[in-house]
Sequence to fold (129 residues):
Amino acid sequence: MEQDLFILLARICLSAVYLYSALDKTINWSNGLNFVNGLRLPQPKPVLMGTIVVQYVGGLAVLLGYQTRHGALLLLAFTAVATIVAHNPIVLRGEELRRQVTLSLEHLAIVGGLLILAVVGPGSYALRP
Fold:
């Protein structure tokens, strides 16, 4: 019982990151679009929309405990790609390098939490498929 409560708390913490980010991008579309444009990615509007959808779908799957393993793996893959694309510190120097390395390590920690969820599943406090 206690283990399931901790898994629920982990699901809440992990999903909050993605659900907040998706909501922020939805409300502040132009800021999100400016960020994607700054990355020089092709088709910035579909990229931003895809990001929002992945964050909502994965975040809700993890939060609700419905298809949690799939949601965690989706967010894990998204986070790994987004970290490489948006926070790649290879060409940076000085303070910006330190900032991006810190962000990348924070993302690595989130990936670790998602990996654990993908392995152990949602626990008993979850919607089941």
The mean pLDDT is 94. Residues 2-120 form one domain. Residues 34 and 40 are 10 Å apart (CA to CA).
